[in-house]
Amino acid sequence: MIIHTEATALQIRPWSKTSHMVTWLTPEYGRIVTAVKGACRPKSAFLGQYDLFYTCDLLFYRRERDGVHSIRECSPSALREPLRRCWRSAAAAAYLADLTARVTVSHQEAAAVYDLLNRTLDALPRAPRHDLKALILRYEVNLLAKLGLAPNLDLCPHCHTPDRQWLRFSMTSGRFACPHLAAAAGESAVALHRDVRQLFLTMLDRLTDTADGDILRHSETDKNRPPPHLLLGLSRFLGMFITFHLEVPPAVRRVAFELLDKNPTRETVSLETSSP
Ligand SMILES: [Zn+2]
Fold first, then answer.
1. Which residues span the domain enclosing 41?
2. How far does the centroid of ligand 1 lie from the alpha carbon of residue 233, in Å?
3. Which among 116, 188, 189 is positioned nearest to 147, based on CA atoms?
4. Ligand 1 ion: residues within 5 Å (CB)
5. How far is the CA of 158 from the centre of ligand 1 (A)?
6. Separation of CA 69 and ligand 1 centre (Å)
7. What is the CATH number of the domain that holds 2?
8. Do 124 and 30 share a domain, yes or no?
9. What is the pLDDT of residues 92-113, one digit of tens each?
10. Are 123 and 196 in the same domain?
11. Same domain assignment for residues 155 and 174
């Protein structure tokens, strides 16, 4: 069966001397892998038609059995050139693409994640350097929500009274721990600050409002940008949560965040050392 869809390229791997395996995210079919035979030959019809983070019009032969489909035609509709001029944005995009490829599945509608990914990829090169991490966190928060895997951050009126700044979050059950409820067997819990919980919820809300496209329009201005220590707290929490529930190896994320910290300018240094 021939399928026509739009698709964003998440990963490109060499396959034989002249061919590629391309992993795509599509709105209707989730993550798909296509083989592009002869992709690297000088006269290949596919030269320049796809690259990492491109969104393309894709025509492929759908094969049910081994999961690798055969590409028939491909033409780019969004090249995202600015991502290629800034290595920080490209590093952030590579992490998001890797994460997305790991947590999405084949033959399952993924329109919401597809839309989220494309809008975030569009926003990355326009984000100020020190906002890249916040943009990644926002992507993670909303990705979890769209996958139906977001943590339950509801508070219990008895246990989580407003005077308590630190709350115990049970990784195992994906919600705050309540002393009056039986703990899950082998429960692992982390302390989460009330303000980090609020930041999570804020990021979740802001993106759902932006059906018209631009994520950055809703991002923090200098005045109400979240303080670095809260971003750090959210980043640690999300790192643990994603490793725990999505079974994504933590190294990929750690490397991406370390890369974004390389050669900080005076501005980012002062931002990162201003935590109380
Ligand atoms: Zn309770």
1. 1-79
2. 23
3. 116
4. 156, 158-159, 178
5. 5
6. 50
7. 2.40.50.140
8. no
9. 999 999 999 999 998 899 999 9
10. yes
11. yes
For residue 198, report the distance from its CA to the centre of ligand 1, in Å.
19
State which H helix or E strand residue 35 sits in.
strand 30-36
How many domains are contained in the chain?
2
Distance 183 CA to ligand 1 centre (A): 12
- The verdict on 14 and 131 lying in the same domain is no
Q: Which residues contact 120 (CB under 8 A, 6 or more apart)?
A: 96, 135, 138, 139, 215
Instruction: Flag whether pLDDT at 276 surpasses 50.
Output: no
Domain stops at, among 56, 79, 102? 79
Element (H, E) at 121: helix 111-123
- Cα 176 to averaged position of ligand 1 atoms, centre (Å): 8
The reply to whether the predicted model has a pTM over 0.85 is: yes
CA of 151 to the centre of ligand 1 (A): 16
End-to-end CA distance of the chain: 59
What are the pLDDT digits (tens) for 188-212? 899 999 999 999 998 986 654 444 4
What token pair was written down for 42? 């000088």
Closest by CA to 261, choosing from 86, 88, 84, is 88
CA 160 – ligand 1 centroid, Å = 7
Are residue 117 and residue 46 in the same domain, yes or no? no
* Separation between Cα atoms, residue 96 and residue 101, nearest integer Å: 9
Q: Residue 195 C-alpha to ligand 1 middle, in angstroms?
A: 19
Per-residue burial over 201-232, b = 16 or more CB atoms within 10 Å of its CB, e = otherwise: eebbebbeebeeeebbeebeeeeeebebebbb
Q: Strand 189-193's sheet: what is its strand order?
A: 175-176, 166-170, 189-193
Mean pLDDT (whole number) for 236-264: 90
Q: Is the pLDDT of residue 241 over 90?
A: yes
Q: How confident is the model at residue 79 (pLDDT cuts 50, 70, 90)?
A: very high
